[in-house]
Predict the 3D structure of the following.
Amino acid sequence: MVNWTQMHDCYMDVDRVPALLERVELEDNAEAWEELRYRLVLEHDLVFPAGFAALPRLVRLASRSARARGLAGTILRRAAGHHGCDDLLADCAGAIAEFRKLLDRHLQSRPVDYLATFLDLLAAKEQYHWSAVLGDFTDDFYHLTCPHCAVEVTIAIGDYGRYSAIRDWHQGDVDRRVLRQASREGLSGIGRWMHETAVRDGREALADGIAHLFGKGECPCCASVFNIAEEYTSANRPVLR
Ligand SMILES: [Zn+2]
């Protein structure tokens, strides 16, 4: 049983969240959901003890409530930050495993909120980095540093092209080099999982973008070839939101 007297929310209250949870468990009340959301998740970066304490109950509701599913996903995305609740998060392991299965089933139903669900599932897999930075590849840029000559390289993966380039303040992306996408067999780890899932669910643009993101890029300055996802991850660690 959760000791709610120690589970404060964003407003340092301990009694509202359990009352609101009881209410939404009885009926899908929009007002109660709204208050739950702002009490459990503060803006874009913080999550509080009440959020982790509420997580198992939100996951139980998530199979029949899109609001519960969305709120549980948001809490997990925030779990990357510094919240001082590692013990509470560890207690949620069973609920998070259940939530992963639920999100995976939801993805296979080809929902309109496919990308948001995909990002929630990445967070539930503790892939907070990709959960925070992955876009839909219509207009995406990734900035990294060439591992050999240290020049700043812009990686573009979008409808207008897939290239590495030097970003010039006045001229835009210059010295473009076409990216080399990873083959299906060339993918491993989380890149492979992301690609296979997008292919399974018929999300061609997403799968194609992931194959490029986990592929290779060429530095426009020194012509060295590097693994884009690796360099981007190391360039952006530990920036998490
Ligand atoms: Zn270089």
Remarks:
- The first strand starts at residue 41 and ends at 42.
- Residues 146, 148-149, 151, 219, 221-222, 224 surround zinc ion (CB under 6 Å).
